[in-house]
Amino acid sequence: YIMTKKLYIKTYGCQMNVYDSRRMEGVLAPLGYRAQDSAEGADLVILNTCHIREKAEEKVYSDLGRVRQEKEKKSSMLIAVGGCVGQAEGEEIIRRAPFVDMVFGPQSYHQLPEMVTRAIRDNGGVVELDFAPERKFDALAESALPQGVSAFLSVQEGCDKFCSFCVVPYTRGAEYSRPLAAIEQEARRLVDQGALEITLLGQNVNAYHGDNGGSTASLADVIARLAAIHGLERIRYTTSHPRDMSDDLIAIHGTEPKLMPFLHLPVQSGSDAILKKMNRKHTAEFYLDIIARLRASRPDIAFSSDFIVGFPGETEKDFEDTLTLVEQVKYAQAYSFKYSPRPGTPAAGDEQIAEDVKDGRLQRLQALLRMQQTAFNESSVGKTMQALLDRDGKLEGQLLGKSPYMQSVHVRDAENLRGQLVDVAVTGAYLNSLAAVILSEGRKAGVEGSCAADKNFSVRRVHSG
Q: How far is Cα 326 from Cα 306, in angstroms, rounded to an integer?
């Protein structure tokens, strides 16, 4: 008999960290740990951290101060700092916060059971910063927990690009791709556990080049293999680099209906001069050509991107080049940030642009992006599409889901459709979501772009979760 213990994991940052946190739950489950929603009364608290944004370390130390108060109520509580801040800071975390029992990086969490045992035995002081993702995935092979109808699956980790603003190559290590057979095995487990949608994850997911029984598989090969799994309805992937958009990957967007027509393709800037300073190794024209080729392959594809404003050396002309690129692409969604120097990266020592200039540029860019996102959502009104209803809404009887284009969709009076993939008619559009109603029994499943003229709507199950 294993006594149940309380586990709280706070996850910062990207979807890779969300995936890692779920795998931590799986690794710790044999020790009796079960996840809860707060640090109160927990036996083990893990902060799974992100190092991308400014002052990430200080945010962690601030949160550690609050967790320490819980440890004062329960002296047996173990506190761990994992993820990229753990990798970057190492023993410095224990020096600054000696009440922390364990520090580990994103390639070491498969050793959590051993770390917990050592921390209890030695009264803390455990630091594990291994950089061997292949050993991690081998150890995690059977530890996955059910993730629900929409699941993440890590296929690639690390980065070899060394953009001058980014810490990922230093905290996640070199690019590593899992074998195709291991990915398929995990995908089948997820589908058996109820997943209808799988998002393939990687720091540079389209740089995937995994082993396929002696040959090398591409991300397009992964998508094709997973698309053959009965019961898997949707496939997505993120995050991509423009330089790794291969011909076969572009082509499969037009031939595989399970691959959703939405792609997050970060560009960061529309200025060739700034792209060079960022060490992106591509031009704005190269990026726009990739966009054009993807649209030729899949005409209804929608895009999101990442943008950094106020990068060292960015002139007003450079910034206007970014606005021009945004106007050319017309994004459905986007993420934009002011540049903040990350210690240890090449750009950190360059002369910085004034904060008021950064603020003004960010506001102008975000205004344009909001206008485009609103216009894209409004273009969906009157169309039918499939929505995967995977979570509860704020109102009673309301469910939230995702459209093929990653829009949030909310429907009413659909309590019995949670975990279902259903046809909906879009009736309203907002900046961050769509309103919709469930289509009638006679509406054909999966037809997008048709006019929803029939007002006699009734609930219908399309796929069983």
A: 11
Distance CA 267, CA 353 (A): 20
Burial 307-317 (b: 16+ CB within 10 A, else e): bbbbbbbbeee
Phi, psi of 226 (to 5 degrees): -70, -30
**Pairwise CA distance, residues 414 & 214, whole Å:** 48
Whether residue 183 contacts residue 226, with contact meaning beta carbons closer than 8 Å, is answered with yes
pTM greater than the 0.85 cutoff: no
Cα separation, 368 vs 376, in Å, equals 12
Between CA 73 and CA 83, with CA 79 as vertex, the angle to 5 degrees is 150
Which of 230, 264, 227, 239 is CA-nearest to residue 166?
239
Round to whole Å and give the CA distance between 66 and 60: 10
**Mean pLDDT by 10-residue block, N- to C-terminus, for the chain (465 residues)?**
86 88 91 94 95 75 94 96 90 93 92 94 91 69 74 92 90 90 94 96 96 97 98 97 98 98 98 98 98 98 98 98 98 96 87 96 98 98 96 86 97 87 96 91 34 34 34
What's the DSSP call for residue 353?
Answer: P
How many helices (H) does the chain have, and how many strands (E)? 14, 22
- 3-class DSSP state for residue 357? helix
Three-class SS of residue 3?
Answer: coil
